[in-house]
Amino acid sequence: MSIIIDTLRESALHIDSLLKDTSTSYMQSINVSGDTQLEIDVKVDTFLSEKLLNIPCVKAICSEEQEEMLYSAHTNAPYIIAYDPLDGSSLIDSNLSIGTIFGIYNEELNAKNLIASGYIIYGPRLEMIIAQEQALHYRYNGSIWRNLGALQLNTKGKINAPGGTQKHWENKHKAMIESLFAQGYRLRYSGGMVPDLHQILVKGGGLFSYPATSDAPNGKLRKLFEVFPFAFVYEKAGGFAINGTQRILDLEVAHLHESTPCFFGSQSEINLVREVYE
Ligand code: AHG
């Protein structure tokens, strides 16, 4: 396992430098989720897939940018890594933070088999969260990764990060979001899952929601590459992740690119979501 984490740490430095140097123009290709790919999306995906497939304890990988699972030569190895190489890459032109999300599964691609997860955040600073027993926060200081300690959510926060197009929200969802603002919650939403969820973790609480909408009844965010890894991080930080009624990490996966509505937050906000959605 530690060799996977070390590889991701080294890869973060390389991806951070690629982000500064590579063209961010759109290519002709569209990925499996229907997003037009940037040259940097493809470059980072190719780089990471080669690195991860070379690790002796990795049996297979799957990427948000690729339709099928890719198998390594290590057929008896235990781990499968699912990752989103550059989540939020459409924000690069506006120079907002973006990230790499990863989940490490033991033997099978199933939420119950997730044994570690995390993300790298490329912002003014290069940081990484690695969740195993705890959700540990690391920052690169130019020569080493410093451990800043474990992230821990309070039982209630102040941030409201509501995803999706508002005109496609259900009325009950709209009323819930408005009720949070009425209680004094502040809007904090960049449109990048990594910085938006990271901000809630670092500031100690709040709610991130990406609900079912009339144009996306299963939500937008994908279970294996985005939602399960963040659910694992949130639970290790003392928070919660649900799809409205069920715990995210109890959900099954029907196919690699399946999406789900999702709500991440501290206890008070997730209790509210349950009241509204149950
Ligand atoms: P992309 O990688 O295409 O930029 O998508 C970003 C994802 C995720 O990071 C974010 O939470 C969500 O899309 C935002 O979607 P909305 O703009 O629909 O709120």
Tell me briefly what this model is.
By secondary structure, the protein is of the alpha+beta class.
Overview of the molecule:
- The chain has six helices and 15 strands.
- It is of the alpha+beta class and 278 residues long.
- A hairpin with a 6-residue loop joins strand 3 (58-63) and strand 4 (70-71).
- Helix 1 runs antiparallel to helix 2 (39-53).
- The longest helix is centred in the N-terminal third of the chain and has 20 residues, at 2-21.
- The termini are far apart.
- The relative contact order is 0.14.
Question: Any idea what the radius of gyration is?
Answer: 18 Å
The DSSP helix count reads 6
Taking the alpha carbons of the first and last residues, their distance comes to: 38 Å
The CATH homologous superfamily of the largest domain is called: Fructose-1,6-Bisphosphatase, subunit A, domain 1
User: Residue ranges: pLDDT <50 for 5 or more in a row?
Assistant: none
Give the mean pLDDT: 95
Major β-sheet strand ordering: 4-3-5-6-7-8-9-10
Counting DSSP E segments of at least 2 residues, the number of strands comes to 15
Which architecture of the largest domain per CATH?
2-Layer Sandwich
The SS-based structural class is alpha+beta
Share of β-strand residues: 25-35%
Cofactors, ions and other ligands in the entry: 2,5-anhydro-1,6-di-O-phosphono-D-glucitol
Task: Indicate the CATH class of the largest domain.
Answer: Alpha Beta
Biggest sheet: strands, sense, closure? 8 strands, mixed
